[in-house]
Design brief:
This protein is α/β, with parallel strands linked by helices. The chain has a two-stranded parallel sheet with strand order 1-2. It has a two-stranded parallel ribbon with strand order 3-4. The two termini are 22 Å apart. Helices cover 36% and strands 12% of the residues. The radius of gyration is 12 Å and the shape is globular.
Length: 84
């Protein structure tokens, strides 16, 4: 799954441009949940949609608000340092 704070239009353009959309069974953007990062809701909605438990996945996050959301979600996460 891809969980992004980007707008759907921007995320779709980037994924299509780089031919990456095929790698994700779920894409959630800022328009898809009532609350956004740093709230953990987008990650929790993804778990619910995929019917997975927090111990069955890992989050790869590269932004400060995303790391805050990941930490609050109780899902294990990895901080990608290329962006921070």
């Amino acid at each position: 799954a891809l969980i992004t704070s980007s707008e759907k239009k921007i995320a779709s353009f980037i994924l299509e441009y780089f031919d990456l959309k095929k790698y994700f069974s779920l894409i959630l953007t800022r328009e898809d949940t009532p609350k956004n990062k740093p709230d953990p809701m987008p990650y929790l909605k993804a778990l619910e949609y995929c019917k997975l438990k927090n111990i069955e996945v890992v989050i790869l996050e590269d932004s400060k608000c995303g790391i805050q959301a990941a930490a609050s979600s109780t899902i294990p996460y990895i901080k990608a340092s290329w962006y921070l």
